[in-house]
Amino acid sequence: MSGAWRWRQRLVLAPLLLLSLGFSLLPVIWMVFTSFKTSNAVFGAPGRLLPLVWTLSAYRTVLGDGNFVVYFANSLFVNLCASVATVALATLAGYSFSRMRTRGKQAVMLGILATQMFPSAVLLIALYVIFRDLGLLDSYASLILSYVTLGLPFSVWMMRGFAEAVPIDVEEAAMIDGCGRLQALWRVVVPMMLPGMIAVALFSFLVGWNDLVWALTLTTSPSMRLIPPGFVSTYVGQFQTYWNQLMAGSVLVSLPTVIIFTLLQKYLVQGITSGAVKG
User: Fold this and answer.
1) 3 state DSSP class of 241
2) What is the pLDDT, as a whole number, of residue 2?
3) Which fold has domain 58-275?
4) What is the chain's percent helix, strand, coil content, to nearest 5?
5) Degrees, nearest 5: CA angle 215-221-222
6) What are phi and psi of 241, to 5 degrees?
7) Higher-confidence residue: 174 or 5?
8) Count of helices and strands (H, E) across the chain
9) What is the pLDDT averaged over residues 54-60?
10) With 90 as the cut, is the pLDDT of residue 114 above it?
């Protein structure tokens, strides 16, 4: 009975899972196929999924546009800087909350977690006013600080869990051998927290790479645009949207995240299931 019941479960669940997977992948499939169409084919047969004539004209147009290179370089620079800053701050903060015994630590941790509950628009308005008064609007600094602000609370909780997973006896042994606390942190704790640091870096990178609203609000000049607002301003016009070029650019922009996630997905899953749950 047990074997028959499991077989029936698989028989019912398999089509549902395949249907759910197909529904989830349909926008991606449509994006890829549309990128190989001409503009006339996109509007001439909007209900057709496969292109009648396969062409790379949209990719040539996007790659030949100098603005795409600027947008890509800006996004890469901003998100790499934000990821490095987030990893450094989250590692130090998570280690401190894990090892230090001070009053009010739990209240501070709950306060950090509570910041994740605020609507993004509220934080955006507050940071916009701050950056305006400091003269940081339309600059790399405003974007980097914004993405660090968005990714840091969750990253601190994640790194705290990884720090608590490191046996304190190993750290104390290093200190007995002559290491100071910072040396023990760098030589013993940080290598053991490396999977969590990679997960935090990937999480922080994806937060900024996929953002539209913050980058669109904090930047105005074309030379400072990131990829999402740059695409909107270039390929989405008042009277016409260049769907094939927009989809070709989206495919090119998605490739780095797909490659990074494929290579490092085990660290992200480990970080979410281990670091974020403990503590």
Assistant:
1) strand
2) 58
3) MetI-like fold (1.10.3720)
4) 80, 0, 20
5) 85
6) -115, 125
7) 174
8) 14, 0
9) 89
10) no
